[in-house]
User: Which sequence fits this backbone?
């Protein structure tokens, strides 16, 4: 009725910590920082505020030249 052997084969044994996922985690963090930096660069180089003198509204005669 009762099995004297433990059902878990690792019961009572020390299983060492595996460090396998740190490289992937570092790559994902680096990718997130690179994405944020590139988005900031694109925003700073292409954004024109609405009060910019080079900004022309659609349908204005200055934009038709």
Assistant:
């Amino acid at each position: 009725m009762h099995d004297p052997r433990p059902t878990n084969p690792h019961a009572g044994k020390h299983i060492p910590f595996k460090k396998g996922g740190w490289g992937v985690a570092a790559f994902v963090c680096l990718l997130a920082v690179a994405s944020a930096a590139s988005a900031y660069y694109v925003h700073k180089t292409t954004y024109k505020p609405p009060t910019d003198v080079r900004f022309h509204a659609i349908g204005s005669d200055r934009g038709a030249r």
About this structure: The CA atoms of residues 9 and 35 lie 45 Å apart. The chain is about 40% helix and 0% strand.
